[in-house]
Amino acid sequence: MELVKVNNSNFVRDINSMVLMPTDNTEKNEYYSKLRVLKNQKNEMNALKDEINNLKSDMDDIKNLLQQLISKG
Questions:
Q1: What secondary structure does DSSP assign to 11-72, as a single string?
Q2: Tell me, what's the pLDDT at 53?
Q3: Given strand 3-5, what is the order of strands in its sheet?
Q4: Residue 43 CA: distances (Å) to CA of 6, 26, 54
Q5: Residue-wise pLDDT tens digits, 31-68
Q6: Helix (H) or strand (E) holding 3
Q7: What b/e sequence results for 24-57 when a residue is b if at least 16 CB atoms lie within 10 Å of its CB, and e otherwise?
């Protein structure tokens, strides 16, 4: 992350993401804390999506097995 001071302010800008961040440590810590929370929420959401897709696949397998049993029966 490359930071550049913004003229006449208490902010710096991340050149890569163009995000403005305060130079005050308290505000900066709050920013990073919120960023970590959002990242964790995104990871949890992706894990839940993966689990749902796995359950869908399992249900399809069960459905196919039941159809095979019915057709043989």
A1: EEEETTT--EEESSHHHHHHHHHHHHHHHHHHHHHHHHHHHHHHHHHHHHHHHHHHHHHHHH
A2: 98
A3: 3-5, 11-14, 20-22
A4: 32, 26, 17
A5: 889 999 999 999 999 999 999 999 999 999 999 999 99
A6: strand 3-5
A7: eeeeeeeeeeeeeeeeeeeeeeeeeeeeeeeeee
Q: Are 59 and 67 in contact (CB under 8 A)?
A: no
Of residues 29 and 43, more confidently modeled: 43
DSSP 3-state assignment of 7?
coil
Written as one letter, the residue type at 31 is: Y
Q: Are 2 and 14 in contact (CB under 8 A)?
A: yes
pTM passes above 0.70: no
Tokens read off for 65: 């097995």
